Amino acid sequence: MTKQGIAVGVIGAGSIAEIAHFPAIRDEPSTKLVAVCDTDKDRVKAAAKKWGAAGWYTDYLDMLSKEKLDLVIIATPNYLHFEQALATADAGAHAIIEKPMACTNTEAWDIVDAFKKKSLKVMVGCNQRFWLQHEIGKHLIEEGVIGDVKMGRSSLHEDWRTYQLNVAAGDFRVKPEETAAATLFDQGSHRVDLLTWLVGSPVKRVVGLDRLVANSVESGIADDAAWVLMEFENGAIGTVSTDKFSPVVSNITEIYGTEGTMFLSSEATNPFQSAPLAIYTAKDYDWDSLPEEIRDYRYPTTFWVNESPIAKSLEKRWVSIYPPRKWAYTRMLHHFIECVESDRECIIKPEDGAMTMEVLCGVFQSMTTNGWVDLPMPEEVIPPHYTKKRMHRQQR
Predict the structure, then answer these.
(1) pLDDT in tens, 39-52
(2) Tell me, what's the pLDDT at 308?
């Protein structure tokens, strides 16, 4: 760490770096973008100039060997995450890795081990945890507002063209050998992580399907529909559903407890889901005991007297919460920097990223065995479209 702050390097100057990571670095006072790497020379030169990086590279090993970096953000195609993460750990830098953490469960655990051996921090960029509505929801769950969580569902449905034709700088998402899994890894990574976090328990076993059902093979999509059923260690059950053919984006996360229900969203709204967070609690509250996050958004439906400190007991009803739309990537980077500076554990632990990969790869194993798969799995599960590579060790 220099006097100028935490020196950051970014591997991959594509769409997610441009719309999320570069702006977050710019807006974080304690970070300085030192170097950018991308195999596209024109793109990386333009990114370095736009975002103020002194160094630019087309080879990440070159960047890691020549620059003194405190943090590396890996924002490259899925199949590159593993090797680039190991190289980053070898270089002695902390890392934020875009989801999915890797392309197999074993690769993910190897990344965890590599950073632990160097006493370095590594976090998967599952930004969904950093939307304020999800953070508020998590706090209310921990406060017991909806009782014991027993069931949950998280979904994200979209047409693959929505991102690819409007935002994407590259085409790896439609190259099965580079993405390994399309909808399952792309949207599923976020949804499994978010649901597991809100339920508050590791996944015990999984069963699921991941298939190409609506698009043609010629589209290049590896899979466009996935359904995952999970049993958590605390006895709760949950599902994740996602696709890449729905013409309009929809998402919802539902959490069902013994004393209440919670609906959350971050990607889109619709006529049946118009609030980013809605909560119903069957618990008895008066105005003073009602959690502040709910009280701030609980407007009267009849008269203010019924929704005030003089009310003996508040009516049980849905309350919609509209927190400010703070950019999740900015909040994610700020959190990670605070954890680095204070040497404390991140909200997204390294093991969380690896366990998400256990769930996702467990879906492939489930399709092979036609049944439930206990987690963590004793063997490595390799997605059918993915060819394991070992590049950076050979180049050194």
Answers:
(1) 999 999 999 999 99
(2) 79
Q: Indicate whether 103 and 177 sit together in one domain.
A: no
Tell me what pLDDT residue 211 has: 97
Smallest CA-to-CA distance from 236 within 252, 218, 257, 215 is with 257
Kindly state whether residue 390 falls inside one of the protein's structural domains. Answer: no
Q: Are residues 75 and 97 in the same domain?
A: yes
Here the contacts of 388-396 (C-beta below 8 Å, separation 24 or greater) are 388/103, 388/104, 388/107, 389/79, 389/83, 390/83, 391/83, 392/61, 392/83, 392/84, 392/86, 392/87, 393/83, 393/86, 395/61, 396/61
Count the alpha carbons within 13 Å of 233 in the hemisphere toward its beta carbon: 9
Same domain for 249 and 110?
no
Do 304 and 343 have their domain in common? no
Residue 8 per-residue DSSP state? E
Q: Is residue 324 pLDDT above 90, yes or no?
A: yes
All residues at 6 or more sequence positions from 302 whose CB lies less than 8 Å from its CB, including other chains: none
> Is the model more confident about 207 or about 305?
207
Share in percent of the chain as helix, strand, coil (round to 5)? 40, 25, 40
- By C-alpha distance, which of 80, 76, 87 is closest to 36? 76
Is residue 369 classed exposed, middle or buried when 0-12, 13-18 and 19+ CB atoms within 10 A define those classes? Answer: exposed
- Backbone angles phi and psi of 175, in degrees to 5: -120, 100
243 forms beta bridges with: 157, 225
State which residues form the domain around 62. 6-128+330-354
Judge if 69 and 157 occupy the same domain: no
The residue whose two tokens read 């690769």 is 107
Residue whose entry in the numeric block shows the structure tokens 């830098």: 93
